[in-house]
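Shift notes (night). Ran DgyrCDS4129 while the centrifuge was going.
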Amino acid sequence: MENSEARKYDSEGDDSGCCGIILKVISLVLIVITFPISICMTLKIVQEYERAVMFRLGRVLPGARGPGIFFIIPCLDNFVKVDLRTVSFDVPPQEILTKDSVTVAVDAVVYYRISNPMISVVNVEDCSRSTRLLSQTTLRNILGTKTLSDILSERETVATNMQSVLDEGTDPWGVKVERVEIKDVRLPVQLQRAMAAEAEATRDARAKVIAAEGEQNASRALKEAADVISEASGALQLRYLQTLTQISAEKNSTIIFPLPIELMSAFIERKK
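Came back to this:
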């Protein structure tokens, strides 16, 4: 698209008719007569990051001038400087109704540069303002097809889609959109409270599940320990002595020891 537009303007040339030729000759004669004062009016300079789009008698001249020095004919030529550096701007917060009927405020930042100076001057009145307006409408249109969870979890995908749409829309203006970033997604206060309550309930449910799994594992371990103790006759006695040792280590004023395990063994064997 840009190449075809550039070729179209290049093919126009400097066909200004007889009046244009006469005016050009008169201007050149005046430049020669007023030399060297006319040098200040005929020589212009553009920086490395700039280009100059020239018009002669209302017709655009092929090719953008710069960087450096270029020559103009006073009273016939005028030019427009175009900055080729990358420019960024903030997209104002947009009130968007998502696909799941939630109203959110979303803002973004867009980085762009002018890729074709001639098209950016001839095809659009103000490419910067047009790009800003198109960014606002594109942000609303793209996020309107997404759910709230998609917007919160897939910011990079949304930004990439927005960049593609913007780049395609600004191509006839000679503008190249390089990057789009979603800055912030602001939710209503009531929705924030509801999401916080939902997250807390989810965490509580997960904690209960973890605690239940721990109890289940502990029960299995106790059952295995009981099986081992029941198989060995001295294991129960050793466990009893270990319990007495732990009790005696505590700083209690009074300790009541249970009935010795040896006396209970006789009743256990008689019951069997």
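The longest helix spans residues 189-231. The domain at 87-191 is CATH 3.30.479.30 (Tetrahydropterin Synthase; Chain A).
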